[in-house]
Amino acid sequence: QVQLVESGGGLVQPGGSLRLSCAASGITFTFSIYTMGWYRQAPGKERELVATITRDRNTNYADSVKGRFTISRDDTKKMVYLQMNSLKSEDTAVYYCNADHPYYSAFTYWGQGTQVTVSS
Question: Which residues contact 106 (CB under 8 A, 6 or more apart)?
């Protein structure tokens, strides 16, 4: 069974920074081949993509976070990170870690989410 566990969320003032972490585990989970991503869902809104990183370290970002957020991964530790700088109130949401198999769409996994609140 694959598990994704997020951490690092919290309350931060506008302009501040947070670093989210996602730890992956599972006896049959070949972490290195998965595209890893961060998504978020604000109250009353649909879940949206924040950033993804492929096995080849190709990254993709939502326009709203480009230049402020950075996604990275450590395959040896089965970890994925999201460094969030210059946070805005509109970044407030529950952030979810995602693992997506590049060839088999049925193999997609989600974490339980971590709350990020940007407020003064």
Answer: none
pLDDT at 98 over 70: yes
What percent of the chain lies above the pLDDT cut of 90?
90
What's the DSSP call for residue 64?
T
pLDDT tier for residue 117 given thresholds of 50, 70 and 90 = very high
Instruction: Determine the Cα angle at 109 with ends 53 and 23, to 5°.
Output: 65
What's the mean pLDDT in 58-72? 98
- The distance of Cα 73 from the centroid of its chain, to the nearest Å, equals 10
- DSSP summary character for residue 90: G
Radius of gyration of the chain (CA): 14
Q: What is the DSSP letter of 45?
A: S
What are the φ/ψ torsions at residue 98 (nearest 5 degrees)?
-135, 140
* 14 vs 30: CA distance, rounded Å: 37
**Are the CB atoms for 6 and 14 separated by under 8 Å?**
no
